[in-house]
Amino acid sequence: MAAAASARSIYQRIFSGIQPTGIPHLGNYLGAIRNWVDLQSKSDQILYCVVDLHSLTVYRRAETVKQNVRDMVISLMACGVDPDKSILFQQSKVSQHAELAWILGCKTPVGILNRMTQWKAKKTEIGGGMEHLGLLSYPILMAADILLYRASHVPVGDDQLQHLELARHIARTFNGMYNTNIFPEPEPILGDVTRVMSFRDPIRKMSKSDQSANSRINLTDTDDLISKKIRLAVTDTISSVTFDLDKRPGVSNLVLMYAALTHQTPNDVIQQMMGKDTSQLKAELIECTVSTLRPIRKKITELQREEAFIVQKINEGCRKATDLASQHFCDIKSLIGI
Ligand code: AMP
Ligand code: TRP
Fold first, then answer.
1. Do 221 and 143 share a structural domain?
2. pLDDT (tens digit, 9 = 90+) per residue, 182-194?
3. Are residues 106 and 46 in the same domain?
4. Is 298 a catalytic residue?
């Protein structure tokens, strides 16, 4: 494993995954990526995986898939995921993920999969029996990702807690069936920021799939674009700055973002903004968003010119992950008699 001599191992082994959907937005950064970076000082056994197999549940052209994987690796590194501290790799390059998913699929009743909230939502959205098997078995592949490395902890967003619970259930069932303790039951690590909302419709999450480009800030947005999007953010007719997610979702979202970016609580921000109005809050938010994202954007641009270096880093990560995965997968196969 990659070892950082000074890392304190609060967590035994961390695994997490992110879909390659192009350049991440501020919601991805505050809700997931920043936690990944911070965790690097809390464990010396970390695997971060760009889950390209999961991303195949949505059709994209081959060139786009390739580009998305590269963009995600670059973005993660630019945000501070350090391949010398964590194993950063691409899921499809370690064949045991798919193989273990098959094995675990043979132990998982369809009834449980049918109850998954995300599956039910996608099924309704697609409809007409056209929803495919990959969407139904998505959580099994996610369980395989985690269990393949016998990870003890998984940083996730709250929308993935149900899938993680299923991974725990699968681990328990497998261990019981084969009278083993090969799989630890992975615990979630929840970050402080769970929901960064859309600037245009603050009761919906900031999302890549939102039609309006002004609804989100991407990590590569220029200072001017960041400024414009925040100035246009929907608020309400009250000018003072208060925090009430139900009654004032727009302003409260800006308070939450400001709090997250400056490592404060929403209450601290309210105190600080006493006597100021929402346009001043926006001005301060612009300043701290710009100063957080400027170095990241610069690093992304630099890394985009370093094609060979990026390929080398992905390959190194895949090699390290494969070493670990092969060892464990051998034990798993021997347990089940294949
Ligand atoms: P996605 O691209 O939606 O699969 O999200 C990748 C990661 O970013 C997941 O860990 C999500 O929980 C997190 N994430 C996505 N959107 C948001 C958001 N608007 N606020 C906070 N976290 C988010
Ligand atoms: N399903 C996760 C998401 O959509 C991504 C993911 C795949 C993942 N495998 C994982 C997250 C394993 C944590 C652990 O965000």
1. no
2. 999 999 999 988 8
3. yes
4. no
Cα–Cα distances in angstroms (integers) from residue 220 to residues 76, 83, 215, 217, 270, in the given order: 13, 21, 15, 8, 29
Task: Please confirm, yes or no, whether 205 is among the known catalytic residues.
Answer: yes
Residue 215 DSSP symbol: G
Together in a domain, 93 and 153: yes
Nearest Cα to Cα of residue 212 among 220, 204, 44: 204
Return the beta strands (E) in 128-209 as ranges.
153-156, 187-190
Instruction: Specify the pLDDT at position 9.
Output: 86
Interval between CA 336 and ligand 1 midpoint (Å): 36
DSSP state letter for 159: G
User: pTM to 2 decimals?
Assistant: 0.95
Q: Do residue 152 and residue 37 come from a single domain?
A: yes
Which portions of the chain are predicted below pLDDT 70?
Answer: 1-8
DSSP, res 23: S
Catalytic choice (42, 107, 123, 208): 208
Contact 121, 84 (CB under 8 A): no
User: CATH number for the domain including 13?
Assistant: 3.40.50.620
Average pLDDT, the chain: 96
Say how many Å lie between the CA of residue 119 and the centre of ligand 1.
17
Give the Å distance between the CA of 96 and the centre of ligand 1: 26
Which pLDDT score is estimated for 1? 53
Retrieve residue 223's tokens. 């200072």
pLDDT at 5: 46
Catalytic site includes residue 122: yes
